[in-house]
Amino acid sequence: YYRRSWSSESSDSVISSESGNSYYRVVLIGEQGVGKSSLANIFAGVHDSMDSDCDVLGEDMYERTLMVDGESATVILLDMWENKRESEWIQDHCMQVGDAYLIVYSITDRASFEKASELRIQLRTARQTEDIPIILVGNKSDLVRCREVSVAEGRACAVVFDCKFIETSAAVQHNVKELFEGIVRQVRLRRDSKEK
Ligand code: GDP
Ligand code: MG
């Protein structure tokens, strides 16, 4: 199913299997060094705190089935935003293939926060007609003394972006499970409202 879903270009690309399980492609984007791969590693269960197994589909792709609100969902997480080779092509591709996005910045790096706004605009341009679920993620919340972006600023930015907001720490694994559950909920909310 994976290759099939990868090549799907329709906006209704969330695939449902016969068992009723749904597959969601979630893409990590954001400046280098903000903690995308660290979040992906937690998702992949390198330090296992979640309750199911993970398949590593490639260097920068992970698949895991999560139970969220009593319903299972398989998340395919893509962490290829900064692939050095063919980076531009990959970034264009990333902008097209996600069912949902995690736009990550570091609370210790204001430039990465500003970059997040740029990425939001880029995403909106790339996927104009779609209401894509996005979570703005302020990572490194454990580094309290180095904070450059306040919680209030992050929250306000998410309001402007019309997306959800969460602060996480990959280092101490704070809110990481909530982040991945949250993105599943966001995709479902849109799916459910489409069905009505
Ligand atoms: P990426 O470039 O966005 O994939 O970022 P990485 O996951 O490679 O992380 C960059 C650096 O930040 C690494 O040294 C990580 O150990 C560190 N890092 C990532 N997340 C956190 C976090 O939540 N807290 C702290 N203190 N460091 C983090
Ligand atoms: Mg990385």
Description:
- This protein is α/β, with parallel strands linked by helices and 196 residues long.
- The chain is 37% helix and 25% strand.
- It has helices spanning 2-7, 36-43, 87-97, 110-126, 151-161, 176-195; strands at residues 15-16, 22-30, 54-58, 61-68, 71-78, 100-106, 134-139, 164-167.
- It starts with a helix and ends with a helix.
- The model is unreliable at 1-13 (pLDDT under 50).
- Magnesium ion binds next to helix 2.
Task: Give a short synopsis of this structure.
One of its GO terms (cellular component) is plasma membrane. With 196 residues, this protein is an alpha/beta fold. It has helices at residues 2-7, 36-43, 87-97, 110-126, 151-161, 176-195; strands at 15-16, 22-30, 54-58, 61-68, 71-78, 100-106, 134-139, 164-167.
